[in-house]
Fold this sequence. Notes:
7 helices, two-stranded antiparallel ribbon
Amino acid sequence: MRTLVLGDIHGAYKALEQCLERSRFDPEADHLIFLGDVSDRGPDTVECIDLLLTIKNLTAIKGNHDIWTLDWLSGNSYDEEVWFKHGGLSTFESYSKHGNLEHLRKNHLDNYFDQLLPFYKDKNRVFVHAGFDLDRPIESSDPNKYYWDRE
């Protein structure tokens, strides 16, 4: 079993598909650590999530764009102007072009977004979307650093 790491696909289904094909990724045997930001900017967020859900050994980490999408899908309050400015309109349109939006929302919430991790530790490695506080154990970092930190 190989472990591959990929992130920030931002709704680019063809790019995701090409990365997996060119690396000869085996969705039944290999492990994919996805570093977040499956949504926004590209036109195919729904297809990207559906593809990730076919991977048996998927570890998915939450990114800042995932937070905006999760808030929208969950019906939580969110700043539409900020989200759309950062590519959220593409995600909104990706979901809108599919039938049975409520079923799709529930499926993606239950099976993808609600399963996202703030970070992932394996042996001597730590995987996170953005950052963490180097002066304390990662579990004690401010969660906002996991998603938003750029230091």
